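#struct-help
A.M.: can someone run this one for me? Single chain, 210 residues.
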Amino acid sequence: MQEDDDYIVDFDFRGDWFVLTLRDGTREEAERLAAEYVAQFNPLHLRVSKDALQRQLVQIALNAFESGPVVVAVAYTEGGTLLADLVVYVYGEDGVRRPSPQEYLPKLVKWSYAEVKGEPLVAEVELPVGPAVRVQAMLAQKRRFGWGSKLSESLRYAVWPTGQEEILLVEADWQHFERTDEIVGLVEELVPTMRLVPTAPDVQSLRGHH
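D.P.: on it. Structure tokens below:
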């Protein structure tokens, strides 16, 4: 993971996504952000309490911050059910040549926290920001104490931004398999809007903006 002072990673987030990227990683910051989003839900459509929704958003934001992503976003139903979460990481080292898509593929088809079930779907795509590799896979994540596993699905894009030295990894995960087509559509609509926005000299970290 590398932070870069030259740009931030940005997307054209629409109403389907709530951006939970934290700058400071404090609970106060997460609670302010969560409260803004909870207020956007129609109480007549919610199937969970606003307090429960707020707690979930706060926890997602704080947990994600610990792993160092540059963008964190979630998609919800109007009833308050989490559909999918999405994170973006930046990988690279100054002065070290980044691997090609073919060299990087063995890492892309493995997940550190889960076992891949079956053969992942792999495709090379061209995005406005640069070439990318798309990987979609079914995962079995080990439960605590080894009792069984939890199935989920994941869609990854590894992106080689033109003119940069880093690789950007976009990863969305979900468990509502009956809505896979809808979720994949949301991700595939979002990813091509990725852009790198130059930052002012005093900006010291990458953070996604809504």
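A.M.: thanks! The radius of gyration is 17 Å.
D.P.: also worth noting: The chain has four helices and nine strands.
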